[in-house]
Write a structure and sequence with these properties.
The chain is an all-alpha fold. The protein is 59% helix and 3% strand. The protein has eleven helices and two strands. The protein has helices at residues 2-5, 21-32, 37-44, 49-55, 60-76, 88-100, 135-155, 158-185, 195-199, 203-212, 216-221; strands at residues 106-108, 128-130. A two-stranded antiparallel sheet has the order 1-2. The longest helix is centred in the C-terminal third of the chain and has 28 residues, at 158-185. It is elongated.
């Protein structure tokens, strides 16, 4: 019947269909028309849903339409005013946020549109990411805090000394975090052998293998 229809493929050859091919046609049409893949899996009797999805043919147009539908659903969940074109002042304010994130010791991780909650006491701020190049400045801050604590204790400024100890603990924590980052970023040579070292036969092993091999002439004689 298929040959009588005169249907051919792209190369002009007669189409060759097997009964099993109709399962793929059914799966493709069913899922494209809204049937959930796990329902199609039950109908086809597959144990693995990946087998079912392998039966479904994906076409470029279908992929594009599916992506557009996904974007439309995501946008429907968000307020429409979020998708308007920003004004020039709003865009300049957004770009300026990243410029203001640059501080003396590194980068501030504050979210866009939020103000500093630590009164620009960056050493105490948990969202400060110290620049490794500014390590010497952080060490200077730590040493200065130590000297100021000594002075405050000598003068009897107990409240001042307590606040300085909090800043000193934060500075020590930032240094420890920086050391951990540098340690993880250090490249370690595992000593992986190259191809020549792998294929080279050690002398001791070569002697052992040679002693275990039967003589070729004696083997052929036997």
């Amino acid at each position: 019947m298929l040959q009588a229809s005169g249907l051919t493929n792209v190369a002009g050859q007669p189409l060759n269909y097997q009964p099993h091919g109709f399962r793929r046609i059914f799966t493709t049409e069913a899922i494209m028309n809204g049937m959930p893949p796990h329902i199609a899996q039950l109908i086809l009797g597959h144990k693995n849903i990946n087998t079912t999805m392998g039966y479904k043919a994906v076409y470029p147009e279908e992929a594009i339409n599916g992506h557009r539908a996904f974007i439309a659903r995501r946008r429907a969940l968000r307020p429409s005013e979020e998708y308007r074109t920003p004004t020039d002042p709003e865009w300049e304010e957004f770009l300026g946020h990243f410029e203001r994130r640059k501080v003396a010791l590194g980068d501030c991780g504050r979210a866009y549109g939020t103000s500093c909650q630590h009164e620009h006491s960056c050493v105490r701020c948990p969202v400060l990411r110290v620049d490794p190049d500014q390590r010497h400045r952080l060490e200077e801050v730590r040493n200065n805090l130590t000297d100021r604590i000594t002075e405050a204790e000598r003068e009897g400024w107990l409240g001042e000394a307590e606040g300085l100890r909090v800043s000193l603990a934060a500075a020590e924590s930032k240094l420890a975090q920086l050391n951990e980052r540098l340690r993880r970023a250090t490249t370690i040579n595992l000593g992986i052998p190259n191809f020549r070292e792998i294929t080279a036969e050690p002398p001791a092993l070569a002697v052992t293998l040679a002693s275990c091999r039967p003589d070729t002439e004696e083997s052929s004689a036997n």
